Amino acid sequence: MDNRPIVAVVGRPNVGKSTIFNKLTGKKISIVEDTPGVTRDRIFGEVEWLNKFFTIIDTGGIEPETDDVIVSQMRNQALLAVDMAHVILFIVDGKAGITAADKEVADILRKTNKPVILVVNKIDSMSQYDNIYDFYELGLGNPTAVSGANSMGLGDLLDEIVENFPEGLNTEYDEDIIRVAITGKPNAGKSSILNNILGENRVIVSPIAGTTRDAIDTYFEKDNKKFLLIDTAGIRRKSKVYENVERFSVIRSMSAVDRADVVLIVIDATEGVTEQDTKIAGIAHDEGKGCIFVVNKWDLIEKDNKTMGNYKKSIREKFPFMNYAPIVFVSAVTNQRINKILDTIVEVSFEQNRRVTTSVLNEVIGEAVMLNQPPSDKGRRLKIYYGTQTGIKPPTFTLFINDTELTHFSYTRYIENRLRENFGFEGTSIRIEYKQKRR
Question: Residues of 347-377 as b/e, b for ≥16 C-beta within 10 angstroms?
């Protein structure tokens, strides 16, 4: 994180933590519902205030000790966020007043010896302001009144957050980050892969399909490379999306692909390619993202010397338009080839940003035209005058031609293949655009 300040948002369930988080980040990153326990994992976001940048973490509610596995892990994730944070926002409900759970959370936070800002939420009008005085009983200093729903008091809250940053932290913005979306159907092992990459128990992992509901941003640095890893909720078939929360999760999975530079399409080796895998890959390809197929649970497959080759062939047959995408076989359980994932991400990111000089590009195009003449229609033949690279991520090339009506998909694919043979572009789609030019 390059020593970026970290702010944790904690409190008991359903006090408005995610609403405040979304308002501070300016994005609908956390799911907001009136259902307690909707936010399960630590959700990361970026905030700027007065030219200072910091990371903010939304957490699931801290509840008393329980035998419920999910609730217990939510509590542990929240406590881990507290341990990571430089400043803690303790959110309480100004309408409900102090509860036993609030007192328990306050006891935990006092022991951290970190700056704790007591935020009394749901103070929606001045007539409710006197409600804050009851919260002095928690022994955490002066309460700050806000209304997350109405955005009241958030400027004062941000001022207080920034004032509490310890000295020596880096609050400047850094754009040099590779953004990676980890996508796939529920229970394919996405969260386990992310945990192994990070080397910590970062995301709740359980055998219950659909445990991860939010798209979770995690910043990570290795070998002087910076990554933003987005673990997404699994994309389910529409017929299985029953409740509002699940519908929001599907939308967020789509938007995670949109935000990413590189998309990991995690396939369950025991199930093979599914309809949902095909849908995710199609979205990533159409959006021009870097794509990597990650076949997880490879340890569960009986193998001979042809197993991997046959599996690769099967994937290529089901994704004929994505022959450029590398395939990595891993096991999140045994940690097999997990390091290969990061190496491949770096390689694909490099290819996404590759630039070709105009002179070299036109040599390759000229040679391609000589070897295979462009198509003709009613006696008129397509002529390519010259080409130039006009973009990256994905690499985009504009070819100036005599008539756009003479272009054909098959010849565009031929030009793309020639570009790949000469320049690589492994892991990234290529866009070829035509512009009609009069001589």
Answer: bbbebbeeebeeeebbebbeebbeeeebeee
Please tell me whether residues 430 and 341 are part of one structural domain: no
Q: Is residue 64 part of a domain?
A: yes
Annotated binding site for GTP: 11-18, 58-62, 121-124, 184-191, 231-235, 296-299
Domain that holds residue 220: 178-352
Last-in-domain residue among 109, 132, 163 = 163
Torsion region of 408: left, alpha or beta (phi above 0 gives left; psi -120 to 50 gives alpha): beta
Given a cut of 50, is residue 244 above it in pLDDT? Answer: no
Q: How many helices (H) and strands (E) does the chain have?
A: 11, 17
DSSP string, 72-117: HHHHHHHHHHHHH-SEEEEEEETTT---HHHHHHHHHHHTTTS-EE
The residue with tokens 């076989």 is 329
In this structure, are 28 and 118 located in the same domain? yes
C-alpha distance across the termini of the chain, in Å: 53
Question: Is residue 168 domain-resident?
Answer: no
Q: How far apart are CA 130 and CA 411, in angstroms?
A: 73
Q: Which of 128, 163, 198 is where one domain is finished?
A: 163
Split at pLDDT 50, 70, 90, the class of 34 is: very low
Question: What pLDDT score does 186 carry?
Answer: 78
- Residue 335 domain-assigned (yes or no): yes
From CA 347, how far away is CA 289, in angstroms rounded? 14
Distances (CA, A) of 53 to 4, 25, 179: 8, 11, 18
For residues 216 and 346, state if they share a domain: yes
82 lies in a domain? yes
- E strand map for 151-224: 178-184, 216-222
Residue numbering of the annotated binding site:
11-18, 58-62, 121-124, 184-191, 231-235, 296-299
Q: Which residues contact 404 (CB under 8 A, 6 or more apart)?
A: 434, 435, 436
Residue 346 · residue 292 · CB < 8 Å:
no
Work out the pLDDT band at 28, boundaries 50, 70, 90.
low
pLDDT band at 221 (very low <50, low <70, confident <90, very high): confident
